[in-house]
Specification:
356 residues, 11 helices, ornithine cyclodeaminase, domain 1, single chain, globular, Rossmann fold
């Protein structure tokens, strides 16, 4: 894993008990983690998956969904990266009433807690708003080195919120597009997106009303909305294009098996998603029709794109292993830079324990 040198792991004896746990705030995570860093770390974690060195909780994701009137949702995911070694818990809470969804906003609750996998002692607590946002994009876009077109000219973005912007930040590291088409639910958001990014990129960014128009024109199309219904259709994807689906039903389940290659981040993690299970139960897809998990392609166990005319679907639901890997990378960088806020642990405050 590409990261600063971790604390020494050469001794099997427990390290000296520390009296602080490092809190790393949002601004510090933004300062320390760049787009290319996030992409490289996601790639490294994918290869760990291929080497079977990642351990998950059972089930991989624990959820609490409280309906009306609260509309409150909690997700908790736990993982151990044996090769580091580090363990971590990712926990987040957001509001979703079907009209307003705060999952990608700064006012929802998002933290990662890291512990030494050898001793279970606390290491760090990180705000994960930036790391979640850029990881979600990096994990989906970085594999296009192996699965995307060689020289795409047109990018299509379905959704221009936080996910769309971060996917574009990642795509800039791989390609120089001649044209970008974008669409969203509201005309004003896609117009604002185009006005912002066209001068930054130096290429036309054209907002359009139709999702179909965006996908049909795109050599690389990215579906990154918060919608729960079917967003894009398989017949819209042209020969030689790659469609990137970021969770749920960005691509019609009925079309998954019709792509030349369908590649996902992790089968077991996708099985925790109701939409994925429904697709399997309906007989629209099964594991025999899956070309590969992304880690298998990055590790060289399965081929990536083999022909210029292949249509490839890349679908990611999101891996907490990558969140923990990025958090560990930031923690080591923060230690090197002497930043972060040390918080006292219970060990440091043992003198305050109840007496008698």
């Amino acid at each position: 894993m590409r990261r600063p040198a971790p604390p020494s792991t050469s001794s099997s004896k427990p390290e000296a008990v520390t009296d602080t746990v490092l809190f790393i705030d949002y601004a510090t995570t933004v300062k320390l983690l760049g787009v290319t860093d996030a992409m490289a770390i996601c790639d490294d974690i994918y290869r760990m998956h291929a080497r079977k060195s990642v351990r998950w909780s059972n089930p991989p994701s624990q959820k609490l969904d409280a309906g009306a009137p609260l509309h409150n949702h909690w997700h908790v995911k736990t993982v151990v990266l044996e090769e580091v070694p580090i363990s971590g818990v990712r926990l987040y809470s957001y509001y979703d009433d079907g009209q307003v969804n705060t999952v990608g906003r700064l006012d929802c609750t998002r933290y990662i807690v890291l512990a030494d996998a050898r001793t279970a002692r606390p290491v760090a607590i990180l705000d994960e708003h930036w790391t979640y946002a850029i990881r979600s994009a990096a994990a989906a876009i970085s594999p296009l080195r192996q699965l995307g077109p060689r020289t795409p000219r047109t990018l299509g973005l379905v959704g221009v919120g936080t996910m769309g912007e971060n996917c574009l930040r990642c795509l800039r590291q791989l390609y120089r597009f001649e044209m970008i088409l974008c669409t969203s639910r509201r005309p004003e958001t896609r117009a604002a997106f185009a006005a912002k990014w066209s001068p930054i990129l130096g290429v036309p960014v054209r907002p359009v009303d139709s999702i179909e128009e965006v996908v049909r024109a795109a050599d690389v199309a990215v579906g990154g909305t918060t919608r729960t219904d079917i967003v894009s259709r398989e017949p819209w994807v042209k020969r030689g294009a790659t469609f990137v689906s970021l969770a749920r039903r960005e691509m019609d389940p009925a079309g998954w098996a019709k792509f030349d290659k369908t590649v996902i981040d992790d089968w077991d993690c996708n099985m925790t998603m109701r939409e994925f299970r429904d697709m399997l139960d309906a007989g629209q897809f099964d594991r025999s029709r899956l070309h590969a998990e992304i880690g298998e392609v990055l590790a060289g166990f399965k081929p990536g794109r083999e022909r210029d005319d292949e249509r490839i679907l890349v679908h990611t639901t999101g891996l907490a292993s990558q969140d923990v890997g990025i958090a560990w990378w930031i923690y080591t960088k923060a230690r090197e830079a002497g930043v972060g806020i040390p918080l006292p642990t219970a060990v440091a405050q043992a003198a305050f324990s109840p007496q008698g």
